[in-house]
Specification:
- By secondary structure, this protein is mainly alpha-helical.
- The chain has 2 domains: 34 residues, no CATH class; 96 residues, no CATH class.
- It contains 6 helices and 4 strands, in the order E-E-E-E-H-H-H-H-H-H.
- The protein has a two-stranded antiparallel sheet. A two-stranded antiparallel sheet has the order 3-4.
Length: 149
Protein backbone atom coordinates (compact mmCIF):
# COMPACT_ATOMS: atom_id res chain seq x y z
CA UNK A 1 0.00 0.00 0.00
CA UNK A 2 1.33 3.42 -0.92
CA UNK A 3 0.41 6.72 0.65
CA UNK A 4 -1.01 9.44 -1.56
CA UNK A 5 1.18 12.44 -0.78
CA UNK A 6 -1.45 14.89 -2.05
CA UNK A 7 -3.96 13.75 0.55
CA UNK A 8 -1.54 13.70 3.49
CA UNK A 9 -1.47 16.47 6.09
CA UNK A 10 0.39 16.88 9.34
CA UNK A 11 -1.07 18.33 12.49
CA UNK A 12 0.80 18.99 15.71
CA UNK A 13 -1.51 18.49 18.68
CA UNK A 14 -0.35 20.67 21.56
CA UNK A 15 -1.48 23.34 24.00
CA UNK A 16 1.64 25.40 23.46
CA UNK A 17 1.24 28.74 21.77
CA UNK A 18 4.26 28.15 19.61
CA UNK A 19 4.76 24.52 18.72
CA UNK A 20 7.88 22.96 17.31
CA UNK A 21 7.44 22.66 13.58
CA UNK A 22 9.09 19.72 11.93
CA UNK A 23 9.09 19.18 8.21
CA UNK A 24 8.05 15.68 7.28
CA UNK A 25 8.76 14.33 3.82
CA UNK A 26 7.04 11.62 1.82
CA UNK A 27 8.77 10.62 -1.40
CA UNK A 28 10.81 13.78 -1.31
CA UNK A 29 7.79 16.09 -0.97
CA UNK A 30 7.11 18.09 2.18
CA UNK A 31 3.85 17.18 3.93
CA UNK A 32 1.83 20.39 4.44
CA UNK A 33 1.05 21.46 7.99
CA UNK A 34 -2.49 22.34 9.06
CA UNK A 35 -4.16 23.51 12.26
CA UNK A 36 -7.36 21.49 11.74
CA UNK A 37 -8.38 18.52 9.66
CA UNK A 38 -11.56 16.56 9.00
CA UNK A 39 -11.04 12.88 9.67
CA UNK A 40 -13.96 10.50 9.22
CA UNK A 41 -16.40 13.38 9.63
CA UNK A 42 -14.87 14.74 12.84
CA UNK A 43 -12.93 18.01 12.75
CA UNK A 44 -9.74 17.65 14.78
CA UNK A 45 -7.88 20.85 15.71
CA UNK A 46 -4.35 21.36 16.95
CA UNK A 47 -5.59 22.13 20.48
CA UNK A 48 -8.30 19.43 20.55
CA UNK A 49 -11.11 21.92 21.03
CA UNK A 50 -14.47 21.15 19.48
CA UNK A 51 -15.72 24.66 18.61
CA UNK A 52 -15.05 24.29 14.89
CA UNK A 53 -16.47 20.77 14.81
CA UNK A 54 -19.69 21.87 16.51
CA UNK A 55 -19.96 24.79 14.07
CA UNK A 56 -19.43 22.44 11.12
CA UNK A 57 -22.03 20.01 12.43
CA UNK A 58 -24.56 22.79 12.97
CA UNK A 59 -23.92 24.26 9.51
CA UNK A 60 -24.23 20.92 7.72
CA UNK A 61 -27.36 20.01 9.66
CA UNK A 62 -28.98 23.39 9.00
CA UNK A 63 -28.27 23.04 5.28
CA UNK A 64 -30.02 19.68 5.17
CA UNK A 65 -32.85 21.09 7.27
CA UNK A 66 -33.18 23.94 4.76
CA UNK A 67 -33.51 21.47 1.89
CA UNK A 68 -36.15 19.57 3.84
CA UNK A 69 -38.02 22.82 4.53
CA UNK A 70 -38.10 23.79 0.89
CA UNK A 71 -39.13 20.32 -0.22
CA UNK A 72 -41.57 19.18 2.46
CA UNK A 73 -43.39 22.39 3.42
CA UNK A 74 -46.83 21.13 2.29
CA UNK A 75 -46.38 17.70 3.94
CA UNK A 76 -47.92 16.50 7.17
CA UNK A 77 -46.32 16.66 10.61
CA UNK A 78 -45.37 12.93 10.77
CA UNK A 79 -43.60 13.16 7.40
CA UNK A 80 -41.61 16.22 8.49
CA UNK A 81 -40.74 14.58 11.80
CA UNK A 82 -39.55 11.40 10.06
CA UNK A 83 -37.47 13.45 7.59
CA UNK A 84 -35.73 15.25 10.46
CA UNK A 85 -35.09 12.05 12.39
CA UNK A 86 -33.78 10.30 9.28
CA UNK A 87 -31.72 12.99 7.55
CA UNK A 88 -30.69 15.61 10.11
CA UNK A 89 -30.40 13.98 13.52
CA UNK A 90 -27.79 11.40 12.41
CA UNK A 91 -25.54 14.26 11.28
CA UNK A 92 -25.82 15.85 14.71
CA UNK A 93 -25.20 12.62 16.60
CA UNK A 94 -22.46 11.14 14.41
CA UNK A 95 -19.37 10.19 16.46
CA UNK A 96 -20.74 12.13 19.43
CA UNK A 97 -18.88 9.89 21.85
CA UNK A 98 -15.63 11.36 20.56
CA UNK A 99 -16.55 15.04 20.54
CA UNK A 100 -19.07 15.53 23.36
CA UNK A 101 -19.50 19.35 23.44
CA UNK A 102 -17.59 20.65 26.45
CA UNK A 103 -18.96 24.19 26.55
CA UNK A 104 -22.46 25.59 26.81
CA UNK A 105 -21.85 27.60 23.66
CA UNK A 106 -21.16 24.41 21.68
CA UNK A 107 -24.16 22.64 23.19
CA UNK A 108 -26.39 25.58 22.25
CA UNK A 109 -25.10 25.59 18.65
CA UNK A 110 -25.98 21.96 18.18
CA UNK A 111 -29.22 22.15 20.18
CA UNK A 112 -30.40 25.08 18.04
CA UNK A 113 -30.61 22.75 15.04
CA UNK A 114 -33.19 20.65 16.87
CA UNK A 115 -35.13 23.76 17.94
CA UNK A 116 -35.24 24.99 14.33
CA UNK A 117 -36.47 21.57 13.24
CA UNK A 118 -39.17 21.59 15.91
CA UNK A 119 -40.47 24.92 14.62
CA UNK A 120 -40.54 23.49 11.09
CA UNK A 121 -42.25 20.22 12.06
CA UNK A 122 -44.90 21.98 14.14
CA UNK A 123 -45.18 24.74 11.51
CA UNK A 124 -44.99 27.27 14.33
CA UNK A 125 -42.69 30.19 13.61
CA UNK A 126 -44.38 32.43 16.17
CA UNK A 127 -41.75 34.21 18.25
CA UNK A 128 -43.98 34.02 21.34
CA UNK A 129 -43.86 30.21 21.38
CA UNK A 130 -40.90 28.61 23.11
CA UNK A 131 -38.94 26.30 20.86
CA UNK A 132 -38.06 24.19 23.92
CA UNK A 133 -41.79 23.58 24.46
CA UNK A 134 -42.13 22.50 20.83
CA UNK A 135 -39.24 20.05 21.27
CA UNK A 136 -40.88 18.55 24.34
CA UNK A 137 -44.29 18.24 22.61
CA UNK A 138 -42.58 16.24 19.85
CA UNK A 139 -41.03 13.92 22.49
CA UNK A 140 -37.51 14.69 21.32
CA UNK A 141 -34.84 14.37 23.96
CA UNK A 142 -32.34 17.17 24.53
CA UNK A 143 -28.63 16.65 24.02
CA UNK A 144 -28.07 16.11 27.74
CA UNK A 145 -30.64 13.34 27.94
CA UNK A 146 -29.38 11.63 24.77
CA UNK A 147 -25.90 11.61 26.28
CA UNK A 148 -24.31 14.19 23.98
CA UNK A 149 -23.73 16.80 26.62
Amino acid sequence: MELNTIKCKQIAITNKRKSCSFIYNLRGKAVPQTSSHDYLGVTITHDLRWNSHCSNIANKSNKVLGIIRRTLTPCSKPVKKRAYETLVRPKVEYASEAWIPPTDQDVNKVEQVQKNAARFVCNNYNCCTSSSDLVSTLDWDTLGIRGLA
